[in-house]
């Protein structure tokens, strides 16, 4: 258990509404990540953070924004949700060893956009 | 762009048999990770392979890495039903020079082990 929680765990929303997903960690790790998982695609990196207020884009960042105002929280926002953003979203942390990117994943959030 | 390809994507096998899952990637890297995912669950880290020739074993699973061939394998020995899951390999994107820090995953191998 890497001390990662995600909220909400399940959400159904409508197209065009804003949605914010939260990732919370209790172990003070510097690096945090957001991935989405879709059938036939494995996991794909959306955004990541390497410290408070330090974030960068991943492979599939369009339509998503992130914020990290505290070490323990990494927020993923869909400004205007679309049906193509229906997915399972996983947050992950890296335990900080240089050159070593083993990541540990939260329980996931299942998001459905109608 | 880094590509990670797993095969097979689906595998049904009988208990007691041996089999191998293959993970090919498209750029130089000596950082490769294997994960397991049970249905509806999160990902669990299985193996971390950090150099050419690395071999790790845990129970009936053994993972290896050949960086020259850009190939990792996950070998299952005398399969049991409890090993049924989806297995993912992942390559370190940032370390391979792909830019963003993070992991690039294969599409996963859905493994079903039948009695």
Structure description:
- The complex is a heterodimer of chains A (114) and B (115).
- By secondary structure, chain A is an all-beta fold.
- Chain A is built from no helices and eleven strands.
- Chain A has strands spanning 4-7, 10-13, 19-25, 31-38, 42-51, 54-57, 64-70, 73-78, 87-94, 103-105, 109-113.
- In chain A, the strands form two sheets. In chain A, strands 2, 4, 5, 6, 9, 10 and 11 form a seven-stranded mixed beta sheet that branches. A four-stranded antiparallel beta sheet of chain A has the order 1-3-8-7, with no helix packed on it.
- Chain A starts with a strand and ends with a strand.
- With 115 residues, chain B is mainly beta.
- Chain B is 0% helix and 54% strand.
- Chain B contains no helices and eleven strands.
- Chain B has strands spanning 4-7, 10-14, 19-25, 32-37, 43-49, 55-58, 61-66, 71-76, 85-92, 103-105, 109-114.
- In chain B, the strands form two sheets. In chain B, strands 2, 4, 5, 9, 10 and 11 form a six-stranded mixed beta sheet that branches.
- The termini of chain B are far apart.
- The mean pLDDT of chain B is 91.
- The A-B interface holds A 31, 33, 40-45, 48, 50, 56-59, 90, 99-108 and B 4, 31, 33, 41-43, 45, 48, 50, 88, 90, 92-95, 100-108.
